[in-house]
Amino acid sequence: MLPPLFRLAVVLPLLAGMAFAGPGGTLYESLGAKAGVAAISDTLIERVSSDPVLGRSFADTNLARIKKLLAEQICDLSGGPCHYSGDPMRQVHAGHHITEAEFYRMVDTLRAILKERHVSLSATNALLRLLAPMKRDVIEASSSKVPQR
Amino acid sequence: MNLPSQVRCGLLLLCVLSGTPAPASMVAVTVRTASGAAAEDALIVFEPRDAMPPPAKATVAIDQVNKRFVPRVTILRTGTAVTFPNSDNIRHQVYSFSAAKSFDLKLYAGSPKEDVVFDKPGLVILGCNIHDTMVGFVVVVDSPYFGRISPSGELALDLPPGHYSLRVWHPNLAAPLLPKEITVGAAAQGVSLVIDIDPKRDAVAPWP
Question: Which residues in A lie closer than 8 A to residue B110 (C-beta atoms)?
């Protein structure tokens, strides 16, 4: 069973995902559905893993795996036909000592990619709203021991 | 060498009663590469050609430190339980697809570790789903007489007298080697082996 706070972090984005109604239907469709979400994930991971600041957290990692799981997660969050099969964000980021500045640098990178892909501002904001609750798991997990499920 | 002294006695009861330790002779093995360098990470095993000593329970650890398996190369006996601690504070996901033992283990920093029992002889290649560059090797053997060659290229074992086949393995072995027949008597002896290692070899050398 997930701890209550984590459950909240899961439920809130789900609600937000359903609340979005763009011209193309669901947020998932506004992001370009399967191909669009895959391209967003691939590009984001390519950029952050080669970024002078963010790259350190991706050293020696299997980027193909991260791309696949991130695409799955975005698909899941945005109302697409996927189920995120990766680990909770807290465990994923534990020990990497991610700073708030790094978190926002990744958000900015994502925002730029969405703009390049002509994703609407409302869809962009909807996606960022879904990801925002992860901030506390991504950052705080770095300085404390990882709780077990 | 943690060999029970009774193991080599033909009449077990007699040995226990008399309290006579089984005789064992030191065999010092040196393994060098063709260029004369110490063959660090080479593994050796003496397979008894007579009777195999009975199985014994053991536990060994293969740690993960700075995104590396430590040790990188492990040799152990069939039935040994391996614990995979995680000394890194990031998570790892250790797996093997090898026929001798396949498993998938999620390891979080500070989490309880479940042991993996290596119950079949053979070569097991370890990887980490999260970190591409992590590669480790486990050779599982039936014999209790084995070890990893030291950084200076040596390993000494105490062996009961008898006939053995000595096998050597290294992940980058250029070509498989035939086992060397060794007879252990009452006196200590030295064995020198030269192996051909190709560090650029992509495929892992087969075992045995």
Answer: 145-146
